[in-house]
Amino acid sequence: MTVLEAIQKSADFLAKKGVESARLQAELLLAHQLGQPRMKLYLNFDRVLTADETDGLRELVKRRGNREPLQHITGSTSFQGHEIGVSRHALVPRPETELLAELGCEFLRATQAPTPTALDFGTGTGCIAITLAAKCPGASITALDLSPDALALARQNALKNLVAERIQFCLGDGFCALKSAAAINVSPRQFDLIISNPPYIASAEIETLEPEVKDFDPRAALDGGPDGLGFYRRLAAEAPEFLRPGGKIMVEFGDGQADAIKTIFENGKWIVESIQEDYSQRARILIASR
Ligand SMILES: C[S@@+](CC[C@H](N)C(=O)[O-])C[C@H]1O[C@@H](n2cnc3c(N)ncnc32)[C@H](O)[C@@H]1O
Q: Which of 84, 89, 91 to mutate to test the pocket of ligand 1 (most atoms within 8 A of CB)?
């Protein structure tokens, strides 16, 4: 079978399984199998695959046909130019979160603090914390998560991206992670920036999501409680104690949640400075201060 035939056959199979952008996915899987950039496939359409390559591709395509996310199969994704390892233990980083990380970087770079500090609440793979550490070399970053496995993955990712010594990792339930015995040496206790992409799907909605999400992203990374807004209530109520004067909170949220979240923060005596849209013009990020 040639490269082109393998792509066509895999794409047909994936399309039948309901996978979106089946041709692109087939090309990415073959590129991964061959260990080369996707564009190189276009120069070698007539090359005949070896038996091992064909067998390897068949396995990958089967997994993707079972709706396992491409990033779980390839083992990583790109986030703000950083290679981030991905597994079942943490949410696959989404493109819209890159904007959140970018806004966080802009704010940290603009603060007058000699060593700006940031807390990534619910760090998952560590994608936001790693971006902040890499793009704001003077800043001190703390990352917390409830999941020990996610935190271990975030640590690995920080090591791989050469920023591990710039990030303190704290395990625990929300801000309690900063107060735990294990975090006794964690400093600072207050931050210029609290940044979070918390779980925000209403519990009952999770079953209606695409298989890639509901069957492969960890439930703890998705479930925002009965109305999906539980973490925003916690953040609005608990974050003030951890925010330095002049600091900001930046949170990502889901489609249709902007008004409810704005109300939650305003009721908690926050000044909502802006609601930012993502790359597809959907309200996605709230920025607030005290
Ligand atoms: C939506 S994911 C975001 C992950 C990552 N920041 C990103 O943007 O890709 C939310 C993260 O919050 C963590 N989490 C859930 N409940 C938590 C809690 N009570 N305290 C701390 N972290 C929590 C989950 O384990 C998950 O890693």
A: 91
Would you tell me the crossing angle of helices 51-65 and 3-16 to the nearest 10 degrees?
20
Predicted confidence (pLDDT) per residue in 245-254, tens digit: 999 999 999 9
Q: Quick one: which atom of ligand 1 is closest to the CA of 124?
A: 27
Model-level pTM greater than 0.70? yes
Query: In angstroms, what is the span from residue 233 Cα to ligand 1's centroid?
Result: 15
Which parts of the chain have pLDDT scores under 70? 181-188
281's CB contacts (< 8 A; 6+ apart) are none
Domains observed in the chain: 3-66 (1.10.8), 77-289 (3.40.50.150)
The reply to whether ligand 1 has any atom less than 6 angstroms from the CB of 198 is yes
Question: What is the per-residue pLDDT for 189?
Answer: 80
Tokens standing for residue 20: 């979106």
Q: 3-state DSSP call for residue 123?
A: coil
Q: Say how many Å lie between the CA of residue 124 and the centre of ligand 1.
A: 5
Tens of pLDDT along 193-211?
Answer: 999 999 999 999 999 999 9
283-289: strand order across its sheet: 167-171, 140-145, 117-121, 191-196, 243-252, 283-289, 271-277
